[in-house]
Amino acid sequence: MKFIDEYRDKDLIENLSSQINKSVIHDYTFMEVCGGHTAAIHRFGIPSLLSEKIRLISGPGCPVCVTGTDFIDKAVTYSEMEDVIITTFGDLVRVPGSASSLEKKRVKGADIRVVFSGLEALEIARANPDKKIIFLAIGFETTAPGTAVTVKQADKEDINNFFVLSAHKIMPPAMEAIVSEGVNIDGFICPGHVAAITGSSIFGFIPEKYKIGCVITGFEPTDLLQSILMLITQVNNSSPFVEIQYKRAVTVKGNTIAQKDLKEVFEPCDAIWRGFGVIPSSGLRLQNNYGKFNADIQVPVSIDYKEDDSRCICGEILRGMKTPEQCPLFANICVPENPVGACMVSNEGSCNTWYKYKIVR
Ligand code: SF4
Prior knowledge:
- This protein is α/β, with parallel strands linked by helices.
- It has 2 domains: 1-310, HypD, alpha/beta domain 1 (Rossmann fold, 3-Layer(aba) Sandwich); 314-356, no CATH class.
- It has helices at residues 2-6, 10-23, 35-43, 63-66, 69-79, 102-107, 118-127, 144-156, 171-180, 192-198, 205-210, 221-236, 256-265, 295-298, 314-318, 350-356, and strands spanning 28-32, 54-58, 84-88, 112-114, 132-139, 162-168, 187-191, 213-217, 242-244, 266-273, 277-286.
- Helix 12 links the parallel strand 8 and strand 9 (242-244).
- The longest helix has 16 residues, at 221-236.
- The mean pLDDT is 95.
- Bound molecules: iron/sulfur cluster.
C-alpha cells in the first residue's frame, strides 16, 4: 500500500492542483485516449481539482467500446454452432450486437466462457479436443502480445482446435483520425500501458505533424495531475513534444520482447472501429504462417449485419465530439444493467463512467 499511497498523497495532489490552476492562461482541451484513464480521472475526481478552463474529453481507448458490432455479430453466429466454445473477456459478453448478444446466447445454452487470457482459452482447447475453441481477441498493443504468445504456444503444441477471431487494434491511427477530422485538442494524455509495450516513439508523429503535445501517463491521481501540468506547460510554451510522465513503466524503446512476438505473429490490416468506420492499417491480423489459427479462414461465417440503434451516439463520444449526457438514452433507457451501446458496458466506457460517478455538467 505504501507504493500506492505515494501517488495518492493529499499534499502532493493539492500542490499539483494549485500549480496547474496558476499556470492556466486560457482555455485548454485535453483528450485522454485510454479508457483506463477515463475511469481513473472520474474515480479520483480529477476534474473537480481543475480550473473550469481545462476540459478533459475521452477518446477511443476502451477496447470493448471500439469493437464493432460486426465483430459481436460474428461471435454471436459462432456461438450458435454446436461444436464451438467461445472464450472471451468478460465485458464483451454484454455488448449488444445488432440482433443479440453473447450474454443472451449463453442464457439460451451456448457454451461461452469468460477467460482472463489467451492461455486460459488454450487450456480449454486442450481439455476439449472434440470442440472448436474460438478466442475473441480484443484490445490494443497492451493485450495483443498475450495473444501472440498464445498462438506461438498453440503452434508449438500443434493444437488443431484453437482459433483466434482478432479485433486487436493499434492506437496511433485512431488518434490521427481524430486530429485529422479537426476535433479541437490541445494535447493528448497518452495511454501508459500501450506505451509500456510500444515505447514512447509511436506518438512522435503527433507533435511533428499536428503540433499537438503528448504526455504518456500513469493511472494514479498524481500521475494524471502531473501530466496535465506538463501539457499546459507545453501549450503555454508553444513547444509540443512527446513527454513521458509514467517513467516507472515506459521507456522510449518499450518492451522489445513483446514487440518481437507481435511482429512475428501479427501483421497490420484495415480495421473497423465503432464510430470511425474503417481506419487503414489500424488492426492486427494473424500472419499467413499462423493461418491455421485464424477463425476467419478456418471457420468462415457470413453475418447478417444490421445498423446500430440510431439514437446511440457512442461513435461521436469515442471521437471526442460529444459527451454521454448528450445522448437521449443516457441514464434512462440506457443504463449499465441494460446497455444499449458498448460505451455503457465496460468499466472503461465513457457512458458507464459518467453513470457510475453521476457526472453532471
Ligand atoms: S448512453 Fe447508451 S445509447 Fe447513449 S451513447 Fe452511451 S452507450 Fe450509446
